Amino acid sequence: MRFAGIDIGSRTIKLAVIENGELILSRKIVTSHDPLGTARELMADTVFDRITATGYGRHLIKGHLSCPVITEITAFVLGARFFSDSCGSILDIGGQDTKAISLDSRGDLCKFEMNDRCAAGTGRFLEVMATVLGFTLEEFSAAALSATRAEKINSMCTVFAESEVVSLISQGALRNEVALGIHKSIVSRSAGLLKRVAPTEKIFFAGGVALNDCVRILLENEMGRPVFVPPDPQIVGAIGAALSASEEE
Fold first, then answer.
1. CA-to-CA distance for 185 and 168, rounded, in angstroms?
2. How far apart are alpha carbons 221 and 90 in whole angstroms?
3. Residue 249 above 60 pLDDT?
4. For 34-38, which contacts have Cβ atoms below 8 Å and span 24 or more sequence positions?
5. Of 19, 50, 190, 192, most Cβ neighbours within 10 A?
6. Which of 97, 108, 57, 43 is nearest to 206 (CA)?
7. What pLDDT, on the 0 to 100 scale, is given for residue 118?
8. What pLDDT sits at residue 156?
9. Which domain holds residue 1?
10. How far apart are CA 37 and CA 55, in angstroms?
């Protein structure tokens, strides 16, 4: 049987299909003004026997497909275990929120914390800051890694941080040093969450921000422990939902 998982996120929608315990298909698409229509587009011509939904829009899908739903926390625990059984904690930085999760010795959920009140320190925050500095996301990470010192960024509010960055540039600050300061502020915030819920053990890093090499390197330095990034960190939740669907047999 084929089991599918769909993760309706704030920035992207992800689909994963598992058969005989192996990932046989994964897709992702930018979430539009019509997430249900976008999800249907993503699932078009995909063959599966059962599907489970997770993410912000999971109840929207449930209402139209009559499928089970699971929380993002559960999905990420299952998805992380699919890629690695040696991680004791999970950090997910997505488009609009950050999750820190600790696992027990069996790989089951122990506790978690979320920063979901605003977009501070998330993928959306990075996108805005990169645009202000005139970088693509790829250039933004590389520029930060090239800096030998960091400009201090005091605000994590997207609106105030944008004004702060514009002010620094107008005062002659170097763009790469501002970029490093922004990355350091994101890592400091995320590390704070991790330290409260999972002060030890190897870190499984998921979500779109896990693609940012600068964030990963700074996180390893800040936490003093290894950070594992799966081949496609954006589909971890979708894989977890697909695994949940397979467990319902």
1. 15
2. 16
3. no
4. 35/8, 35/60, 36/60, 36/61, 36/64, 38/13
5. 190
6. 97
7. 66
8. 78
9. 1-84+232-249
10. 16
Structure tokens at 31: 């979430």
Structure-block tokens of residue 11? 């920035």
Same domain, 138 and 67: no
pLDDT of res. 62: 83
User: 97 and 220 in one domain?
Assistant: yes
Q: Tell me the C-alpha distance between 68 and 70, whole Å.
A: 7
Could you tell me if 185 and 71 lie in one domain? no
The average pLDDT across 111-126 equals 81
Q: Are residues 165 and 199 in the same domain?
A: yes
Are the beta carbons of 241 and 6 closer than 8 angstroms? Answer: yes
Mean pLDDT of 108-132: 85
pTM across the whole model: 0.92
Contact predicate 204/198, CB 8 Å: no
Query: Between the CA of residue 10 and those of 1, 94, 116, 236, what are the distances in Å?
Result: 30, 8, 12, 15
Residues 38 and 73 in one domain: yes
Measure the CA–CA gap between 175 and 137, rounded to whole angstroms. Answer: 14
> Is the separation of the CB atoms in 13 and 31 below 8 Å?
yes
- In this structure, the answer to whether residues 62 and 114 fall within a common structural domain is no
CATH of the domain at 225: 3.30.420.40
Which residues have C-beta within 8 Å of that of residue 245, sequence separation ≥ 6?
A: 3, 4, 5, 50, 51, 52, 68
Q: Are 187 and 218 in contact (CB under 8 A)?
A: yes
In which residue are the tokens 């960091």 written? 150
Count how many domains the chain has: 2
